[in-house]
Automatic annotation (TrEMBL), chain A:
SUPFAM superfamilies (UniProt xref): 2Fe-2S ferredoxin-like (SSF54292), alpha-helical ferredoxin (SSF46548)
Native species: Algoriphagus limi
Domain 4Fe-4S ferredoxin-type: 149-179
Gene3D superfamilies hit by this protein: 3.10.20.30, Alpha-helical ferredoxin (1.10.1060.10)
The protein's name in its UniProt record: Succinate dehydrogenase/fumarate reductase iron-sulfur subunit
Cofactor(s) the protein requires to work: [2Fe-2S] cluster; [3Fe-4S] cluster
TrEMBL record, chain B:
NCBIfam families for the chain: sdhC_b558_fam (TIGR02046)
Database matches in InterPro entries: Cytochrome_b-558, SQR/QFR_C/D
UniProt keyword annotations, A-Z: Membrane, Transmembrane, Transmembrane helix
CDD domains: SQR_TypeB_2_TM
Membrane-spanning parts: 59-81, 110-129, 164-186, 206-224
Protein name: Succinate dehydrogenase cytochrome b subunit
Length: 249, 226
């Protein structure tokens, strides 16, 4: 395959940045998108140019590290992570536009790498449960109905990649935050910090400068893990019931 | 900050205001469209004029009307506050975006639709509501009692094809606004469940067509029958 890549290049946070066009040849349809990027970076390195920086880690679709806004969609045309996107989703001669996630809360570090530590701070604000240290507890010590366990697990499959923020016209982090609140709110282990969790995580989400949800559903449509909008409704319930019943004045 | 102000100024608190005022305005629209159906009665406007008199003088309706004004104003103010936050959340936009593949047009353009509806509302209220309250109204007598003849004002206004066209087009925008707003308000209130969400969505889809069509049929009916 022969392609034209329009890639966002930006030296650092302060740099204005801009698109640079790279022609690339000899790409196999079986390559993953990131392997195609590796080929381009090898060429750039051989030419003595600065390779394109992009985030990636497991390349198995489970770590949430890869990003990239490809041809107007987060993680590209398929509903999957960029590392699981293959070049067979494109045609010979295509021009592919590659941009970083765009959000005030996700500042560009370099090229296509954005700082997603805002998500970490939302988790730190309350996305945890307190447990007693000591021996490993017995499996099934706390009985949880299968349906609830499944639902909590569905929410827990969120890998925190930020595609929801990237897709949302308001750069809202509500799908992410609601998944993280939901996975714990549904389980017995999450009950101790339940109210405080909803209040603190939402306060942190607001403080990070993410937008407000307008229920367009773009986040759920683009989420590589298929996190459902019902989590956002649950988060709203958790929040409104927490503020009228928690100890925090 | 107390917990009340903190909650109400959070994004979720502001969204709560949007949802509650939006739902109240949906209730208002339902009442408004039902009452105005009297225009079709063909009694020379007697029932309509009596209804209009009742709506402007009854104390219980007065309270509801003030709630409606407050809802409109709050809905506008909170939408501005939220839109400003949303715009600031993405200072640098995308060069290429395929939003149409993941969301409905109306859901992404609620602010634009709302602004058009607000402009319509100003024109609409200036034409009928302000006249009814403070304007120089023709009078009519039924069974010895005099009433303001709002029916005549309406009949006269909708002889103007530009006004009729404007009303019909505005109802189109209202339909798009409701097509997203109706179900969205319930989602914001946290009401999302397999038991009733399909019903809410269905009612929303019916409502966003039936109510604007009924409203739009009024100026069209008057224009083509008189």
């Amino acid at each position: 395959m022969k392609l034209t890549l329009k890639v966002w290049r930006q030296k650092n946070k302060a740099d204005q940045g801009g698109f640079v066009t790279y022609p690339i040849d000899g790409i196999s349809k079986d390559m993953s998108f990131l392997e195609m990027m590796d080929v381009l970076n090898e060429e750039l390195t051989e030419k003595g140019e600065d390779p394109i920086h992009f985030d990636h880690d497991c390349r198995e679709g489970i770590c949430g590290m890869c990003s990239l806004y490809i041809n107007g969609k987060p993680h590209g045309p398929q509903q999957t992570t960029t590392c699981q996107l293959h070049m067979r989703s494109f045609s010979d001669g295509d021009t592919i536009t590659i941009e970083p996630w765009r959000a005030k809360a996700f500042p560009v570090v370099k090229d296509l790498v954005v700082d997603r530590s805002a998500f970490d701070r939302i988790i730190q604000a309350g996305g945890y449960v307190s447990v007693n240290t000591g021996g490993v507890p017995d499996a099934n010590e706390i009985p949880i109905p299968k349906k609830i366990a499944d639902e909590a697990f569905d929410a827990a499959t969120c890998i925190g990649c930020g595609a929801c923020v990237a897709a949302c016209k308001n750069a809202s982090a509500m799908l992410f935050t609601s998944a993280k609140i939901s996975q714990l709110a549904m389980l017995p282990q999450g009950q101790v910090e339940r109210k405080e969790r909803a209040e603190k995580m939402i306060a942190q989400m607001d403080a990070e400068g993410f937008g407000a949800c307008t229920n367009t559903g773009a986040c759920a449509a683009e989420c590589p893990k298929g996190i459902s909008l019902s989590n956002i409704a649950r988060m709203n319930r958790e929040y409104f019931s927490a503020v009228v019943s928690s100890e925090n004045m | 900050m107390s917990w009340v102000t903190k909650t109400l100024s959070s994004t979720l608190g502001r969204k709560l205001f949007m949802a509650l005022t939006g739902l109240f305005l949906i209730l208002f629209l339902t009442g408004h469209v039902s009452g105005n159906m009297l225009l079709f009665k063909g009694d020379g406007g007697e029932a309509f004029n009596k209804y209009a008199q009742f709506m402007t003088t009854n104390p219980a309706v007065k309270i509801l009307s003030y709630l409606t004004y407050i809802s409109v104003i709050a809905h506008v103010i909170y939408s501005i506050l939220l839109t400003r936050k949303n715009k600031s959340a993405r200072p640098v936009g995308y060069a290429e975006s395929k939003a149409s593949t993941n969301s409905a047009w109306s859901s992404r353009n609620m602010g634009v639709l709302g602004t058009i509806i607000l402009i319509f509302l100003v024109v609409h209220m200036q034409g009928f509501w302000a006249k009814m309250h403070w304007g120089d109204m023709p009078m009519v007598t039924y069974e010895g009692e005099t009433y303001k003849d709002l029916y005549q004002i309406v009949q006269f206004a909708f002889q103007n094809e530009i006004l009729v066209a404007g009303y019909v087009i505005a109802m189109g925008f209202l339909s798009f606004h409701l097509s997203h707003g109706f179900a969205s308000a319930f989602q914001t209130l946290g009401l999302n469940h397999v038991k009733y969400s399909p019903a809410i969505e269905l009612i929303g889809r019916i409502y966003c067509i039936v109510v604007p069509v009924l409203f739009a049929s009024m100026p069209l009916y008057i224009y083509f029958t008189s």
